Amino acid sequence: MKILVLIKQVPDDVVKVSLSDEKTPDIKNIEKIVNAMDTYAMEMAVREMEANGGEVVVASIGDKDEIRPSLVQEIAVGANRAYIGNLDVSGADEAALSAELLSFIRKIEEQEGSAFDLILTGKESTDEISSQVGALLAEKLSVPFVSSAIGFTKTDAALIVKKETEEGYDVLETTLPAVLSVTKPEYDPRYPSLKNKMKARKAEIPVIELEKAENKVTLTGYDEPAKREAGVKIKEKEAQDAVQKAMAILKEARLV
Amino acid sequence: MNYQKPSEEMIEELKKIAPGRVLTGEDIGDDYTHDESIFYGKHMPDVVVRVETNEEISEIVKLCYENNVPFVPRGAGTGLSAGCVAEAGGVIIDMTKMNKILGYDPDNFVVRVQSGITVQELCDDCEKHGFAYMGEPGEMMATIGGNISTNAGGMKAVKYGTTRDQVLAMTVITPKGDIMEFGREVNKNCSGYNFMHLMIGSEGTLGIITEVSLKLYVKPKFSVSLLAPFASLDDCISCVPKLKLAGFEPESLEFMLRDNVDMIQNFLGKKIYPTVIEGVEAEAYLLVTFTDSTQENLDTILEQSAEVFTDNEALDVMVYDTPDAIRNVWSVRKNCLEAIMAEYKMTDEVDIVVPIPKIPELINSAVAMKDEVGCDIRCTGHAGDGNVHINLCANEMPEDEFREKVKIFMDKVYKVGFELGGLVSGEHGIGSAKVDYLRENLGEHQLCLMKDVKRAFDPKLLLNPGKVCYTL
After folding, report:
1. Would B160 disulfide with which of A168, B134, B384, B443, CB 3.0-4.6 Å?
2. Residue of A nearest to B316 (CA)
3. Can you give the residue range of the structural domain that contains A205?
4. Cα A100 from Cα B160, distance rounded (Å)
5. Tens digit of pLDDT per residue, chain A (256 long)?
6. Contact B303 A198 (CB under 8 A)
7. According to the CATH classification, is domain B344-429 in 3.30.70.2740?
8. Is there a contact between B381 and B398 (Cβ–Cβ < 8 Å)?
9. Which one of A197, A198, A202, A238 would you mutate to disrupt binding with B, by most B Cβ within 10 Å of its Cβ?
10. Is residue A135 in a domain?
11. A250 and A134 in one domain?
12. Nearest to A193 among B271, B316, B324 (CB)
């Protein structure tokens, strides 16, 4: 199978983000990393390639110099090659992003000389957490979409996908080509060996110029979550007294 | 010693010195009865005073001295040798409210802080000011005062030295209540006996450290971690001098054993370290971090150091160069003790330092005792400075029996370590837990000399009794 993995650069998600004076998320000094769910998608694709052959291509849209290190990282962990879609995507909504991705994918396929059998995205990105781009992209490509994939197997005629649910997982069958959004499988993404890292650093990554698509949703502004008020400390030492006190507080607040 | 309990009158005096910050009776929480090594028992103090100023401490100390009441300074209680526990009861002087940053001298690369600040708070604040504090041990919730009292080491000690190397000056309240300044904010000092360095590592037995001036560094801009798996511990440790001989100065250089890695990865619920490389099982790992001010320099270091690894039996070299990757690869090393605590009901730790080439011999001797003691043995440590942590761990064993096994195990391991030219503690300190081993290690003559020093500072032996060179 020829698999395309779409990755997104996000601000390091352990760093607390606050609003700048201009009331926008102050992320300029936060290091960028590959979105965690996208790294699972990459690992899933590389495992498939190692087991059954095929190819894995990785691609991302953003400023061409800023996103190159992330694509190098993904080549170092197994992607055969990468493409950069050079476009400022700040402020783009999911509709615009999926349209831009559609045009990007078509241009990659043109350069590759063949279409992709399978496109993988992360289930969501840690910065926006909308979980929409994969589905919208599938819609625009007119191909089937399965969300929350934790694994897949290719048969002669179809793709069998494990989709995570609250209870466990569903087993679904889809035709190809298809788009899957990937969530955390049973395994963790690998880290690069030095040899692969050094080789990846020298990789030539073609840059494809893209045009901005129109937003459908207008962002009216950002606001920080309200600060939590201090809680009530129950100081009673005996369990029975503590429970009575807790119940009294809950009753007073009309929660029970 | 004829130690007295604080009288009602004395407690009233204490309340006048520190209004609203004196705890007695049931108001004293269980946390004050132990440090993180609960294994060494609990001791309830009679009074806890949450101090805020040097003057308060001076008055409290004078009061204790008049009344023959023992007193113990205490930071965050994260120690592992029971150093801050009130073995003889008396007054605990809780330093955690003295946690202010007093000021930066950026041109002199110095920050002045109160000793109750945590390492985490200090590091965060330094970063905001464009600097780095490099004395950070594994435990970031420890106070700086606690770190200085045990001369804490940690993972950056291989490049930046231990806490001792970070301290330039300090304010100390002597056991008689005098407020004194030891050291100065200068980088050289040959001005008589160096009391500041005597205070460092004295575990709160010679004076109470209340303020300190610490060295600052410019935070290195670029950082990369490498993980090298090896087929044996001997191969792994043999690589350490080769790396240093090749001229590399890693910021951190740690070793881990495979069984420990498996346990920690299981605890973390993720697999980060490769365990089989081209069919060969990894048995030990070196984890190394390099930093530099330019990416180009770092790339050169990366390539050349990797050659040293692979020329010296490393099975592979993995690269961790993004913030999340560096966090992940270090999370395995940093969660070692947490994983042990989660896996076992009982554990006790040998914290010993030996010459680096002797690490495998020490560990092999320890691991060879597994059947004799019937417990699991978990080893890890700082490959770059020879400081080894060996935990004896058990679940289904009566506690008394485990204590007997610990004694048998530690007697043997320390004996081997001393024969290899080692010292009883690399960074955890002696506290009340390792006094006998210190005597065995250094001899009665040196212990007597230490006792003379202690008496010169504290003739009544009231400050933190039963620690380092005296037992109760």
Report:
1. B134
2. A193
3. 2-209
4. 49
5. 999 999 999 999 888 898 998 899 999 889 899 999 999 999 999 999 999 999 999 999 999 999 999 999 999 999 999 999 999 998 899 999 999 999 999 999 999 999 999 999 999 999 989 999 999 999 999 999 999 999 999 998 899 999 999 999 999 999 999 999 999 999 999 999 988 998 999 999 999 999 999 999 999 999 988 888 878 888 887 888 899 999 999 998 888 8
6. yes
7. yes
8. no
9. A197
10. yes
11. no
12. B316
